[in-house]
Specification:
The chain has 357 residues and is α+β, with helices and mostly antiparallel strands. It folds into three domains: 8-18 and 98-191, Pseudouridine synthase (2-Layer Sandwich), CATH 3.30.2350.10; 25-92, Structural Genomics Hypothetical 15.5 Kd Protein In mrcA-pckA Intergenic Region, Chain A; 196-356, Pseudouridine synthase, CATH 3.30.2350.10. Helices cover 22% and strands 29% of the residues. It has helices at 44-51, 57-65, 139-150, 180-191, 267-274, 297-309, 339-356; strands at residues 8-10, 28-34, 42-43, 69-71, 74-75, 81-82, 87-92, 110-113, 117-122, 160-162, 171-177, 196-204, 211-220, 228-231, 238-249, 253-260, 315-323, 330-334. Strands 1, 8, 9, 10, 11, 12, 13, 14, 15, 16, 17 and 18 form a twelve-stranded mixed β-sheet that branches. It has a four-stranded antiparallel β-sheet with strand order 2-7-4-5, with no helix packed on it. Helix 1 (44-51) crosses helix 2 (57-65). The chain starts with 7 loop residues before the first strand and ends with a helix.
C-alpha cells in the first residue's frame, strides 16, 4: 500500500514562531555530527550557525541556554570551543523536521514550478503551515496532495520545504523548496536578506513622507502574547527593517509599497502601526475601526462597506525574487492585487475624487 502522508522540511527560522507554541515537550535530534579532522578551535555557537542552514546565532545560544546542545554526551556552555572528533548533538522541543502531513485536495494557484521550486499565489483565509488549531486546510496539506498526484508510482512522497510564510489573511506569493538542496539554498538567501519581497498595503492616514525606512526590534507584546510590538535597540526582540514608498493617496488612507529587508512575524503590520499608519481592517492591531476621517454617518457607512468587501488586513505579497537553486539565475515573480483589495481601492478612488469636487 502506498504511503498516504508526506513529510515536511521547515527551515523557517525567522517568521511565525508563535505557530510553534503549545506543542508537546518531546525532544528531537536535529543535528548529530562528529567533527572532521582539521577543524580549528571555534565557539560552539558559531560552529552550529555555520553548519545548520537557516539558523540564527540567537537560536543556537538559546538552545545552549536550554541545555539542548551536547558535546561528547555532555552539556556545554556558549564559550566551549569545538575540536576534531567532538561528537556534537543538537536537540529541539519543536516538532521534528519530518512531520506527517495529510494530503488534501485543495486547489492551488501555481505561478511557477520546476523540479526544484514551487511558487504559488496564496489566497486569503488560508494558513501556510499546520499548527496549533490549524491541522488541515493549509498550504502544506494542499501541496502534499499536489505532489502526491505527481508521484503516484513512488512508495514515499517528496519532501516539502518551507523557507518563509505569510499570514493567514495576507495574500500573495510564496516559494516552496521541493528538495532538501533547494530548501537549504533558498533558506540561505532568506537568512542573508537577498530575497526581493515587495508587499502592497493599504494603511490608515495620509503618510507624510513619500518614502522612508522603519528600523526597530520586534518581539512579542509584553502583556498581549498573540501580538507583537516594537522595541529600541539593545532591549529585546529581533532586528527588523522595512522600506516603504507611497503609491497613491486617498485622503484618509494611503496605498504603500513595503520592501522587507528582514522577515519577522507580522513585520509590516507592526512597523506601519509603529509609525502611526495601521493597516486597513487589521483586526489584530486595531485597524478594523475608523482611525482617520470624519464623524459623519455617511462616512462610517462607507468604511463599513469597505470592511465588508475586504474582511481582512489589506496586505498582499506582490513581488518575489530569488536566485534559482540549480540554474543560479535570478527568478522574479509578480502577482496582481486580489479582487477584494482592488474593489476597496476603487471605492477609495471614487471617494477621494468626490472630496476634491
Amino acid at each position: 500500500m502506498k504511503n498516504t502522508t508526506t513529510t515536511l522540511l521547515n527551515h523557517d527560522q525567522e517568521e511565525d514562531d508563535e505557530l510553534q507554541e503549545d506543542l508537546p515537550k518531546v525532544r528531537h535530534i536535529i543535528f548529530d555530527y562528529v567533527i572532521e579532522n582539521g577543524q580549528e578551535p571555534l565557539r560552539i555557537d558559531k560552529y552550529l550557525q555555520a553548519k545548520i542552514a537557516g539558523i540564527t546565532r540567537n537560536k543556537v545560544q538559546q538552545a545552549i541556554d536550554d541545555e539542548c546542545i551536547t558535546v561528547n554526551d555532555k552539556i556545554v556552555k556558549q564559550n566551549y570551543k569545538v575540536k576534531p572528533a567532538d561528537h556534537v548533538v543538537a536537540y529541539t522541543f519543536r516538532e521534528p523536521e519530518s512531520t506527517e502531513i495529510i494530503p488534501e485536495n485543495i486547489p492551488l494557484n501555481i505561478v511557477y514550478e520546476d523540479d526544484d521550486v514551487l511558487v504559488i499565489n496564496k489566497p486569503y483565509n488560508m494558513v501556510v503551515h499546520p499548527g496549533h488549531g490549524n491541522y488541515s486546510g493549509t498550504v502544506v496539506n494542499a501541496v502534499a496532495y499536489y505532489l502526491q498526484q505527481q508521484n503516484k508510482d513512488f512508495e514515499t512522497l517528496p519532501r516539502i520545504g518551507l523557507v518563509h510564510r505569510i499570514d493567514k489573511d495576507t495574500t500573495g506569493l510564496l516559494v516552496i523548496g521541493k528538495t532538501e538542496k533547494s530548501l537549504n539554498f533558498l533558506a540561505e538567501q532568506f537568512k542573508e536578506h537577498t530575497v526581493n519581497r515587495l508587499y502592497y498595503a493599504l494603511v490608515w492616514g495620509d503618510v507624510a513622507e513619500e518614502s522612508g525606512t522603519i528600523d526597530t526590534y520586534i518581539a512579542r507584546h509584553e502583556r498581549l502574547r498573540k501580538i507583537f510590538d516594537t522595541y529600541p535597540e539593545g532591549e529585546i526582540g529581533k532586528h527588523a527593517i522595512t522600506h516603504y514608498k507611497v503609491i497613491e493617496r486617498f485622503n484618509y488612507v494611503t496605498l504603500v509599497e513595503c520592501r522587507l529587508e528582514t522577515g519577522r512575524t507580522h513585520q509590516i503590520r507592526v512597523h506601519m502601526k509603529h509609525i502611526g499608519h495601521t493597516l486597513f481592517n487589521d483586526k489584530t492591531y486595531g485597524g478594523d475601526r475608523i482611525l482617520k476621517g470624519t464623524v459623519f454617518a455617511k462616512y462610517k457607512q462607507f468604511v463599513d462597506n469597505c470592511f465588508a468587501l475586504l474582511p481582512r488586513q489589506a496586505l498582499h505579497a506582490k513581488t518575489l525574487g530569488f536566485i534559482h537553486p540549480t540554474t543560479g539565475k535570478q527568478m522574479d515573480f509578480e502577482s496582481e492585487l486580489p479582487d477584494d483589495m482592488l474593489q476597496v481601492l476603487e471605492k477609495w478612488t471614487t471617494y477621494a475624487k468626490a472630496k476634491k469636487l
